[in-house]
Amino acid sequence: MGCLVSTPKDTVGNRRRPANIGEVSVYVPGLRIPKPVDFSQSLGDHLSKSLVERISALRTRIVVMAGQEGPTITRTRRKTATQHGGSTLADLQQALEDYLPVLLGLMKDGSQLQHKVQFVWVNQEDDAEETAMSNAWYEVLSILHLMAMLSFLQANLLLLPRTSADGYQPKVTEESRRASIDIFIKAAGYLDCAVRHVHPQLPTELKRNLPVDLAEGVLRALCLQALGQGVDIQLGMAIDSTKATLAVKRRLACEMVKYWQQAQDNIMNLPLLNGWGEKHRLFVKWKYVEAKAAAYYYHGLILDEGNTEKFHGMAVAALQAADEYFKESKKACDAFHAAPPLSRNPPLWGTMKYLSEKIPKDTSSKVRINRDLYSHEKIMETAPTLPDFALALKPDEYQLPPVDPSWNMEHMNKGQTGSNQLRNDRR
């Protein structure tokens, strides 16, 4: 059902590990890079020369582009031009989309061709340098993962503040924010498809031997990360809107907490041992704590609108919790950026720029007024439970594309060849 080869990291020097990945609004836990495959050797006796050459050319294009750009596109670059005038990210994404329908022909009608080719990819989060599997579903899983990571990179570029034309403080435009939400939903769709439709196709033995980059928990965490960051952008836009109520902002903040909590739950016990993996875990922890600061802040403001002493006391407890979580989030942020590969925080903007000013100020004033009623030692113990809202943002309903029509021609040609052979035999 497909053999497995994992190469320890100390035997191969192909893992892409830049020392510094620049400004990070969206963390991308490394790009898995495909290595060359000889399709003619494994498929030459089973498929026409033209189809073998086509699938080989499509994958070679990805290998070359990812190999050249992998070490650099994980670093912060606001615009990367190619000789064709398009962006590197878009070109590589298109190459993956072109390859996938042809690749899926290997599994057409349960064909055993899916086990003929050994696909090799360089890992990033796994302790093994690279993993090779003779199963085309492993290749599909790797392609979907790479498509999602390229989407994350694209969102990161959109969400890095730029100096505006008027020379004021760097900011992220509303257009970029809206576009990033669409990208997050699309990335979540790739990952959701990988978990629900591709993972089940793999034999149990191969699932156990997948690199941690493709472990179900990591894929689920990445999907939830995409949705959590999408809600973060929605909250920032609600903060900027005069029409958004406190209830709307609290709901978004509480949903964000649930996304990040579930993301953390999915990767907590996975062996993310190396630099990329540990940094991924720190990113999720940072964003989870940051989300809790926002949720407790808005919950506290709504509780403070109550008329009873009980509601007022609960509001103070919630605001104090927000302040504590905000302080913790700054430490978690520093720990994330200090972990290799090094990164740095872009200028504050959006949700956290607003809350970094409001949380300390509002918490201080409320606690000062009620210092005789609530001691600092008991505030966190008495912090009210956050409301539980259903998660509204969902992954895009991405489906694997239909098998490329060239496979239908392949079967027609084989049928014609078989008929001709039969006629020749009868003669």
UniProtKB/TrEMBL annotation:
SMART domains on file: BRO1
Region (Disordered): 402-427
Record field: compositional bias (Polar residues): 414-427
All residue ranges annotated as the BRO1 domain in the record: 25-427
Pfam families registered for this protein in UniProt: BRO1
Family: Belongs to the BROX family.
Protein name: BRO1 domain-containing protein
Organism: Prunus persica
